[in-house]
Structures are given as structure tokens and as C-alpha cells.
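Title: Comparing notes on inverse folding

I've been comparing how different people in this forum approach sequence design from structure. To keep things fair, I'm posting one structure and asking everyone to reply with a full sequence. Here's the target:
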């Protein structure tokens, strides 16, 4: 396993070891002790799995406020996505900055996003399956969104033809949010 740190403290790109031959391949999709060696010490309590049928589907930017903030370990198991993490920690030197990574069934990379960040992804192919672990259960009262195109953040989604839910179209701007990180 290789873990690459990003410019956002705590956000990592993980490349698991993949063993293959003419029959196919094998990888460990999660190994708690290996992640702990890289400083990722999180107890996951829930697995989530989403399906997006159309290329250009954007989901995000989502997070849960404290005390129900979530760390996430993310992977794309079918298709390809552009995955985004945005630093929402007001005291951080990288507040409002973001990083992206392409996750796909082919590269098998994973993305670790700790508490204090918003998360979103854009499908780059049709029929995407997206899976992630979280360390806090979903909590409706803590569920929040920031507009995907907030100019204060400036995420480059690399596309103008986006398919959005009403929730994401109508999400507040960062300046109008009640973020408590």
C-alpha cells in the first residue's frame, strides 16, 4: 500500500497493492493496521454505496457538522469519478482550498478525507458505483451542503454539463453556511 499526502492536512490518496494474473486480480480494500501505520486511525461504523447512471452527475459538496462530522474512506468500484475534498476548517492554513483525484475501477485508488472537509464527486462515465466508509452514522440534523460552484472555493469540475439534484442546486454558499469546524 502506498499513501500519498496532499496539500490539505489529513487528506490522502491511497494506492492499495493489487495482485493479478491471467485469472483476474486481488486487493485488500481495507486494512485497519496498515492505515494506522500511515496515521489514519479511524473506526468506521457505516458503509455507503451509490449508483449514478449518467456521466456528468455531480454529488456534493456534502458534509456533516459537529458533533456528527464524518471521516470518509472512498473508492469507485465501477466507472470513473473526479473526487473533491474542500477544507472547511476555519483555523486551517488551507481553509477553502480543495484537492481532487480521479478514482476508477481501473486504478483502484482510494481517497481518505478526515472530519472538517466537504466532499463531492463528478461521474466521468455512465453507470458509476461509488463506495465509502464513514466513522459516524448519518445524522439528518447535521447534514449540510455547500454550493458546488461557490466562487469563494472555486472548484474546477472540468465540465459545464452537470446533472444535479435539487438539494445540490439550491445549497447555500459558504458565506451563508453554519459550518462549525
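Reply #1:
Here's my take.
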Amino acid at each position: 500500500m502506498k499513501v500519498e499526502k496532499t496539500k490539505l492536512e489529513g487528506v490522502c490518496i491511497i494506492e492499495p497493492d493489487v495482485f493479478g494474473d491471467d485469472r483476474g486480480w486481488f486487493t485488500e480494500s481495507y486494512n485497519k493496521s496498515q492505515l494506522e501505520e500511515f496515521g489514519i486511525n479511524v473506526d468506521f461504523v457505516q458503509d455507503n454505496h451509490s449508483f449514478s447512471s449518467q456521466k456528468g452527475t455531480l454529488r456534493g459538496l456534502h458534509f456533516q457538522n459537529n458533533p456528527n462530522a464524518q471521516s470518509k474512506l472512498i473508492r469507485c468500484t465501477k466507472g470513473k469519478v473526479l473526487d473533491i475534498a474542500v477544507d472547511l476548517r476555519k483555523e486551517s492554513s488551507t481553509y477553502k482550498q480543495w484537492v481532487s483525484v480521479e478514482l476508477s475501477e481501473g486504478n483502484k485508488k482510494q481517497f481518505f478525507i478526515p472530519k472538517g472537509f466537504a466532499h463531492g464527486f463528478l461521474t466521468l462515465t455512465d453507470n458509476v458505483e461509488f463506495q465509502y466508509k464513514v466513522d459516524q452514522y448519518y445524522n439528518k440534523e447535521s447534514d449540510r451542503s455547500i454550493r458546488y460552484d461557490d466562487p469563494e472555493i472555486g472548484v474546477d469540475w472540468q465540465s459545464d454539463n452537470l446533472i444535479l439534484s435539487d438539494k445540490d442546486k439550491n445549497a447555500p454558499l459558504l458565506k451563508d453556511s453554519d459550518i462549525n469546524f
